[in-house]
Automatic annotation (TrEMBL):
Essential cell division protein that stabilizes the FtsZ protofilaments by cross-linking them and that serves as a cytoplasmic membrane anchor for the Z ring. Also required for the recruitment to the septal ring of downstream cell division proteins. The lineage of its organism: Bacteria, Pseudomonadati, Pseudomonadota, Gammaproteobacteria, Alteromonadales. Keywords: Cell cycle, Cell division, Cell inner membrane, Cell membrane, Membrane, Transmembrane, Transmembrane helix. Belongs to the ZipA family. This is Cell division protein ZipA. The gene is zipA. It comes from Pseudoalteromonas gelatinilytica.
């Protein structure tokens, strides 16, 4: 009996020790193995946005052109293209460049216009067949831009003193179809400052306006499209003098 109890205790001890060894080995392997957390793949939500383009408003044509719309090759200036790239310069070079640009800015001269309109009475027009010889008699010369220019020399040489344009769109004249052309008004204008004697050029412009007005029975209007008065002429003279000083 004692022998059987001893063997039973030995067997139980073996099982207990074996269980402890297995548990220890399992714990060590679990500690050494790195955790691999599960990563969930997140699918971005695809959203679409629609951009509604504003409707482009149609430009309305003016019956009477503005002088800012007319381009003249004799007065056009090509402006250099401006690059958007910014280049860092040393401070000394920047200060030198600014010093060189300041005199050029000071040399810029402001410009203005002297404008005289000739408006026909309602229902009447100037016929091109009559207008062409009239402007030729006043020393105007047709230009490639479609205007009549009055040069310093009546022969058509030298700087342009003033111009004659169509008061109504497109503002130009078709020299090849003057027989079929007619207009309800023309405009004479000069830029300030003027090449040469500004007062002399204005007197020539005003005289040409009066002769054309008498020829066609038109009314002379100032830049505000009001009937020209003695006071209007004086204001024009003072403006010309201010640019001649």
């Amino acid at each position: 009996m004692a022998e059987e109890l001893r063997w039973a205790l030995i067997v139980i001890s073996v099982f207990v020790i074996g269980g402890l060894l297995i548990h220890g080995l399992w714990s060590v392997r679990k500690k050494d193995s790195p955790d691999t957390p599960s990563v969930e793949r997140v699918e971005p939500n695809e959203t679409t946005s629609e951009v509604q383009e504003p409707a482009t408003a149609k430009s309305q044509e003016r019956d009477e052109p503005e002088f800012g719309d007319l381009s003249f090759s004799a007065e056009s200036h090509d402006e250099p293209a401006v690059s958007e790239e910014v280049v860092e310069e040393p401070e000394a070079e920047t200060q030198q460049q600014d010093a060189e640009e300041e005199p050029a800015a000071d040399a810029q001269v402001p410009t203005d216009f002297i404008i005289v309109h000739l408006q026909m009475p309602e229902g009447l027009t100037m016929d091109g067949s009559q207008l062409l010889p009239a402007v030729n008699m006043l020393g105007f010369k047709y230009s490639e831009e479609g205007f009549f220019n009055r040069h310093l020399d009546p022969a058509g040489t030298g700087p342009v003193l003033f111009r004659l344009v169509n008061m109504y769109n497109p503002g130009t004249f078709d020299i090849d179809n003057m027989e079929q052309f007619s207009t309800a008004g023309v405009s004479l204008f000069m830029t300030l400052p003027c090449d040469g004697d500004g007062l002399s050029a204005f007197n020539m412009l005003h005289s040409a306006a009066k002769k054309l007005a008498d020829e066609f029975g038109a009314t002379i209007l100032d830049s505000n499209r009001e009937e020209m008065t003695v006071e209007s002429v004086r204001e024009y003279v003072e403006k010309v003098r201010s640019f001649s000083a």
